[in-house]
Amino acid sequence: MKRQWLSVLLVGFLPGVLSACVTHAETVAEHFDLQMKAFAKDCAKTTPRPGSTSCDRLKLKPVDPLATEEGRFAHSIKIPNPVPEDSGYRPGMTSQQYFDHLCKTEAGEFVYKTVENVDGIILLRPRVKANYEYSHLYAFEDPFGFEAGEGFFVGPGRYAYYEIPNVASTSQESKYTRYFGYDGRSFKTLQNIHDTHRKSRYGYTWRGVVRPHDRENGIGGGEVILVDLETNEVLAVHRGYAQFKMDERMGLLKAGWQKRCPSIQATGGPYGHFILKALKPGSASLPTEGGHDAIK
User: Fold this and answer.
1) Which stretches within the chain are classed as H helix?
2) Which residue in 12, 74, 142, 256 is a FRET match for 132, CA 20 to 30 A apart?
3) What is the pLDDT of residues 143-195, one digit of tens each?
4) Which residues contact 231 (CB under 8 A, 6 or more apart)?
5) Omega of the bond prior to 50 within 30 degrees of 0, cis?
6) What is the DSSP letter of 283?
7) Is 226 left (phi over 0), alpha (psi -120 to 50) or beta?
8) Over the range 118-142, which residues count as b (16 or more CB within 10 Å of their CB) and which as e?
9) What is the pLDDT of residues 75-115, one digit of tens each?
10) Domains of the chain by residue range
């Protein structure tokens, strides 16, 4: 009889224990917060070496996606395939399981319309140069993406020009920078001029995927959106996810966004070739008047 009661007690007790273990398992965010507190203590009791900036990461704050006009515009765009409010996360999922789920169900390239003979494009939202943000769970709005650079987009077989708004400039004469002239071999041939107006009809911007459960589980997503600036039509969307990893022995010194999906090609960054696929380059010389873009 005692054995029977013991069996009944174990059957009723173990599920509760297991459930508590799953419920109270340390999340990536909780582990990151503990590492930050330990790092702050070390910085407080240690005199930094001259020129050392390693403790500057303590000054980083969660990024505000709507802090700039460019960010507000990016997040205002309605796309044909928005991420669902229910990401599919379920209690008990590990960071790896959740990452694999998002990679399978949401990440990828989505081209709704291609454009032929595009002379040039504009990056509508330049990215801020990063340093310790790479090792911070919240300082990056879009930890998946980064830019390929002007040299990738300009040259033979590519666009005649590539434009970037000078968001920090107060001069109307240098509102935009236009890159052109690259011969595909020497970066010395890459030229640039400042202008008061953009020439591009087509552009792209980026934004982070902001949703519950993502950062908590060490996941950060980003979308790149290609837009017809004359009609405001969304032409294509690239969505990717990155996973935050921490080395147990090295703490924040080895922490960072180390895994991405879709995978990144050797050249062009996360989405350079995707942009070329949707906005197909035309001539390789800088046009003097407008462009000759044709929608397909």
Assistant:
1) 2-23, 28-45, 69-76, 95-105, 150-153, 272-278
2) 74
3) 999 998 899 999 999 999 999 999 877 677 789 999 999 998 999 999 999 99
4) none
5) no
6) -
7) beta
8) bbbbbbbbbeeeeebbebbbbbbbb
9) 999 999 999 989 999 999 999 999 999 999 999 999 999 99
10) 2-295
> Which residue's entry shows tokens 């397909």?
296
Amino acid at 180: F
Amino acid at position 1, single letter: M
Q: Would you state the structure tokens that stand for residue 26, as one six-digit string? A: 């340390």
Residue 224, token pair as written in the block: 């790149």
Amino acid letter, 164: I
Q: For residue 125, give every residue at least 6 positions away whose Cβ sits within 8 Å of its Cβ, in sequence order, or none.
A: 68, 70, 71, 73, 74, 205, 206
Question: Which amino acid makes up residue 155?
Answer: G
* Higher-confidence position of 34 and 48: 34
Query: How far is 11 from 3, CA to CA, in rounded Å?
Result: 12
Q: Name the strands in the sheet holding 294-295, side by side, starting at the edge strand that comes first in the sequence.
A: 279-281, 115-118, 294-295
